[in-house]
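Hi,

I'm pasting everything inline rather than attaching a file, because the server keeps stripping attachments. The sequence lines come first, and each chain or strand is labelled.
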Amino acid sequence: MRKHKSEPSSSVPIRAIRGSLFLFSLLAPIAGAFPVNEKKAPASLGDIKAIQDALLAVIPKAQAATVNIDLGDGSGSGVIVSEDGLVMTAAHVSTGVGKEVTVDMPDGTKLKAVTLGLDSETDAALIQIIEKLPDGKPYPFVEINKADDTKLGDWVFSLGHSGGFTKERGVVSRIGRLVRVANTTLQTDGALIGGDSGGPLFDMDGRLIGIHSRVGPQIPVNMHVPVKVFTDNWERMLKSVFIGEGPFAEKPEKGKGFLGLATKSAEGGIEVTKVGKKSPAEEAGIKEGDLLRTLNGEKLDSREKLQSILAELAAGDKLALEITRDGKEETVKLKLGKR
Amino acid sequence: MAKKKRSNLSSASVSLALVVALAHPATAQQSLETNFRTTGAAVTAVFEPQRQVIQLSSAVIYDGRKEIAYGTIISADGYLLTKASEVEGVGKIDVCVDKESFKNAKVVMTDPRWDVALLKIDATDLTPVVFAPDSKLPRGTWVVVNGVTSRTNRRVMAGIISADAREILPEGGAVLGVTLKETKKGLSVEEVSKDSGAEKAGMKKGDILTAIAGKPFKEIAALGKLLAEMKSGTDVKVTLLRDGKKTELDVKLSARGDLFREVSRNDQMSGDFSNRRSGFPRIIQHDVLGASITMGGPVLDLEGRAVGMNIARANRAETYAIPVEELRELAEGMVKQVTVTATQ
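And the predicted assembly:
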């Protein structure tokens, strides 16, 4: 039997989030059990219609909050869970902490966002949208099923931007049942594909119960991270902590960033003697003969100084270099590559 | 646009990681019996009224003993529609409707734009599908389609409408299906691609292409520009020099993505998808899991009316169907054209 709780579960420590993010209102109504879920299988077309009625009622709101996450070299999905733009997604979509990404709203509006914390062991991550909607309205968002009362056999639906964002197609919806339940994984038989990663799994009340993570070799094998994994790590993820050393995200290592140039000491800074082919330096337009004066505000008075700054940075970190080229001063911005 | 989609699809870095489920055995794991899963017998049993429609108004199409597609019955006197590219080139097509077998079905007409073939079998009292008034169905609406079948019994699978109705552009644009080389004599055919329109039209290595649809060209880039204006699935007149003699061939243009398939990571995880899955004027999309041979059958609503016809299994999560508005037009138009020709 489905446990029906009249109070939010005490195992959900999500109240201590920033003031304005107080969306998990304790007063939020907890919907009653969806009747068809009490049956092993739908007994009549009436039950089937009840599923359809539930879907038609909740999909529009769920759809409006299901976003595409554009990382430049690929895309995943996510779902907005607060009116001020907090997004739940998969760790293998956000891939790191403090990264700038673009969120595509279903209508094609592009918004800047930054990745917060993640759990690399279970594939959970948070992203914060940092740009307002053009009309200034609150972001559309969905309610999280805090009661954590989903059970094996429950009817569920998946949304996501399968294969990437297509405005004409919109969010792709799929129906399924919860066919396997484990501590850190929910399995459903609604098919997912690349691009759905990080997208939302909902119960028949339109409450978020999981985030798409991975698929098995057979089509009906599709895995999701239960919301409890998120709520258990909520505060740390909000504080942009990189949790664990799991397979879903690689922790950036200090000193492993790659710039790709050789230098020699010169007056007023260090001079570029060689630029590596296809290196981040070359892609940013740095040329042989450029005089590098400062890096992230620090004076480059020796080659050792450059090395000591780089030793504290990791792949993906951003650099701002003040340079002099042909007597003109310029600022070059780039991201460190992976060594 | 189609191009953009491809690059997204192949972006392995952030697409769903294809992790084998069994790699992390979970503790206290519970599992739902197959019978009660979405495609399980206990669930599909409830769709018995729709199954009866599928039993009478859909067809199973065979090449010998091999099932190759399903069909949609559109007239009592033996006309049915199916996915053209699945039946093309099959020497002897057999069809099964309900419990009855019909030998030597004829492909009487095809519509390359929609990839639809009109088949005729020798029957008199079939039960055609009843068309739904329209296909304006929101996400979450149930649809029921052909599932696994035997010689006597049809089964069904159910799913929901997944996305907005829309056009699916040809993947990668229209191509002839040849590799060309710029030579002193002109654009010379180096290689003719297998199963391409060029091969079917009889184009040969060494042919010198000079014009397409009457428009002359000298460089590969110029031909590319002309092709960019054309649609895959349409016939085009190609002018060429063979052994110095001017010849004209009617070539059916293919979608680049259908002909030269670069298998993306998403394709690798998609099982058996349709060979032709792009270049449709308008489709509705649902999530019923099925192999490429399940295309061609009707897509029913809960009233048992056809809201469309399955036309392409695009990938593991997306299936396209021709919407009933266009399906009805195709059915009536094709039958009319065939019967008018027959009475003349």
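Chain B has two domains: 43-163+279-343, 174-258.

If the labels don't parse on your end, tell me and I'll reformat.
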